[in-house]
Amino acid sequence: MRTRTGLLVAAAACAAAFTGGAWAQLAPGFDAALMAGERPAEEKERDASRMPADVLNFVGIGEGMTVLEVFAGGGWYTEVLSAAVGPEGMVYSQNAARFQERVGEMAAARAERLGNVEVIYTEGMAIDLPAPADAAFTALNLHDMANRGDEAGLGFLGGIYDALAPGGALGIVDHTGSAGQDNAELHRMEPSKARELLTQAGFVVEAESDILMNAEDDHTLGIRDPSLRFETDRFLIRARKPE
After folding, report:
1. 159 with 170: CB under 8 angstroms?
2. Which residue from 122, 161, 163, 176 could staple onto 233, CB 3.0 to 4.6 Å apart?
3. How far is CA 106 from CA 41, 49, 68, 111, in A?
4. Which contiguous run of DSSP H or E holds residue 174?
5. Domain at 34, CATH number
């Protein structure tokens, strides 16, 4: 059972959804887009635990924005981000080139259906966008890079930093790990390590939220353990590239 006890907001945070000089609001029709018949039923089933509206409101992603989604994978968040920015916005859905064969057909079909998504594949983290992104988002990816060492983690975050406009927000969701556990083996990371790497990469860590917390996950199991049913305890961080 997930617990939703509110937001843990750092003192430096000004407002959860303030970006680019305006209050970011989810595009009209956000809920309807997530309920659309074309959206796969198995993806809709995850909404209750992933809380897309709450997560994106916390990060400050909304109508008309240009958003970089980093390591988009199968595209669950691609769909959500597309609905959040609406037809006047744009989502650049990025994956590493080595995954193109695995996800390329599905990603292309989703982008064509949604109309405001462009799929990009990169070698490394040199992400060349037509213009800097207003915001970036990555889910369940930082741990894989950070667990290879600080250099890999900072390289990952550095690529995002370079693709963001000054003042742009970065939202990070990841599997929570604990000190003393083999987090690399379990595919987890401590939130404190994420904050450390973000700061070293030049970001200002503004706020954290516990809305994706799962108190039944004691952090000793691998993220694919059947008992977790793909509902690990997850942390959510909002960071920002300084103006």
Report:
1. no
2. 176
3. 15, 24, 18, 9
4. strand 164-175
5. 3.40.50.150
Domain total of the chain = 1
pTM summary value: 0.91
* In-domain check, residue 2: no
Residue 18 in this model has a pLDDT that exceeds 90: no
At 178, list the tokens: 């604990």
- Greater model confidence, 229 or 47: 47
Question: Is 1 part of a structural domain of the chain?
Answer: no
Tell me, yes or no, whether 208 lies in a domain: yes
pLDDT at 24: 85
Cα gap 231→196, rounded to integer Å: 25
Q: Which range of residues forms the domain containing residue 29?
A: 7-240
What tens digit of pLDDT does each residue of 69-101 get? 999 999 999 999 999 999 999 999 999 999 999
Cβ distance 115 to 87 under 8 Å?
yes
